[in-house]
Amino acid sequence: MDSKPIDFEPPPAEPEAPPKEIDEIVKLPSNFWSIVGVCALVIFTFLSIAVSVTIVCVTLSKQSDKKCELNFQRSAKYELDYEPRPRYISVSDFDKDGYQDIVVANSGT
């Protein structure tokens, strides 16, 4: 047998179909609208900050003629009565163990 190289010819090309309407539309990358949304958010944030700072600076009084005076008023009519000594003392066998127990109630409790 002769070993000759066999030349393969590519199959004939199919005729191109006319483009459909969907193919004619320019397709944007999938992350395009994400980038547009982020840019819009950044621009909105900067504009909001600029407007807010402008409003505060315009409406803020430049002159402060008023002197700050601290006027405190008593809100309670009576102060709490506090004594550091015990007010009430009771001695008894409360837990029935045969030993005397002491209960102390201090002032304010």
TrEMBL record:
Annotated spans, Disordered: 1-20
Keyword terms: Membrane, Transmembrane, Transmembrane helix
The organism's place on the tree of life at top rank: Eukaryota
Transmembrane intervals: 32-60
InterPro entries: FG-GAP
Pfam families associated with the record: FG-GAP (PF01839)
Record-given protein name: Uncharacterized protein
Organism: Adineta steineri
